[in-house]
Amino acid sequence: MHFNQLIIGQGLAGSLLAYQLMRQNQSVMVVDDGLKYTSSRVAAGMFTPISGKRMVKSWKVDELFPIMQETYLELEKLLDESFLNNQNIQLSFSSIKEQNDFYSALTDKINKYVVSEEITPHNGINAPFGAVEIKQSGWLNTVKFLDAIRKYLQGKNCFMQKEFFANDLVFENEKWQYQSHSFDSVIFCQGYRNKYNSYFAHIPVIDNKGDVFTVTTDVLDDKKIYKRSCYAVQLEQGIYKVGSTFKWDNDNTTPTKAGFDELNEKTEALINGAYQVIDHYVGIRPTTKDRRPILGKHTQHKNMYIFNGLGTKGVLLAPHFSKVMADYILHNTLPDAAIAADRLI
Question: Is the pLDDT of residue 229 over 90?
Fold first, then answer.
């Protein structure tokens, strides 16, 4: 059977790219090994207009935010599922210095995202140095989202749960051949596992390991995201996802005691009250040095592409750049040089 595109990987990048291509009347086949703990599934899926230790405005946020909202709301309607949660982030300061740095960073560009410079922190969090709330924030329930996309693709017979091996891909008669199907093009959306792909292993996708907890506690509520040295988002009544740690150049997906201890210390610093860890898992974020996504075409193999490097801001970046990627594949419209040209050497 012939399809227009073969997409390898069904994380945020692969899922949203499939959607954007199908919107343009393309037939796709998505191949994914179905692992339970991947970066897209482990991540809290948070988005925020200001971030980082220096609390700077997120890259392209004014352009990306409305596209993100529109895309996920479209998908909620299409998939008959709810997974987008628009919630303020209540950010509590860890020190006087952090508090001072935040207020020093406030500018006209940042102020519009801050609810108030003086709020009463929720009594379920530790906030000895005060707190602020950040608007236009929230989180995507990535597990519900990816499960809904997978079910949709399965219903259209365009999803294959299978471990992918590059040697199984053959270019023949101007088409890519894989598992008795032919394709006009192939796009790799493999996250950190790109390093094992012989076609694109040279592309600088950097591993960033993160530990995440699922905890139970009755001292928080569901109205906000809480953040200090880590974050807490509510999955359901009394159950929260808490994370994360950051370990560079580490692709070991096995949870460790060291990772547990580090995240537990951060959790204690955030939650003012009792909690119980009921699960501990790990994800490997695909990041880049400049925190920009990677989009582009292979320099030697015809109709072969990569879409990767979404990192910690994947929920915000993926809706816009999946459309950019789809247009690049179908119409040869060049992506922004800042996110492509210097990576595909």
Answer: no
Cα(54)–Cα(24) distance, rounded to whole angstroms?
Answer: 40
DSSP-assigned beta bridge partners for residue 307: 295
Question: Regarding the domain delimited by 89-134+206-287, which CATH topology (the fold level of the hierarchy) does it fall under?
Answer: D-Amino Acid Oxidase; Chain A, domain 2 (3.30.9)
Helix (H, G, I), strand (E, B) or coil at 5: strand
pLDDT in the model for residue 195: 86
Tell me whether strands 2-8 and 28-32 are parallel, antiparallel or unpaired: parallel
Whole-structure pTM value:
0.91
- In the predicted model, is pLDDT for residue 266 greater than 80? yes
Which pLDDT tens digit goes with each residue over 7-21? 999 999 999 999 999
**Cβ(138)–Cβ(85) under 8 Å?**
yes
CA pair distance 127, 121, nearest whole angstrom: 7
**CATH-assigned architecture of domain 2-42+143-205+290-343:** 3-Layer(bba) Sandwich (3.50)
- Cα 22 vs. chain centroid, distance in angstroms? 21
In the structure encoding, which two tokens stand for residue 150, read together? 């997978």
**String of b and e for 297-307 (b: at least 16 CB within 10 Å)?**
bbeeeebbbbb
* Coil vs helix vs strand at 226: strand
Dihedrals phi, psi of 51, to nearest 5 degrees: -160, 180
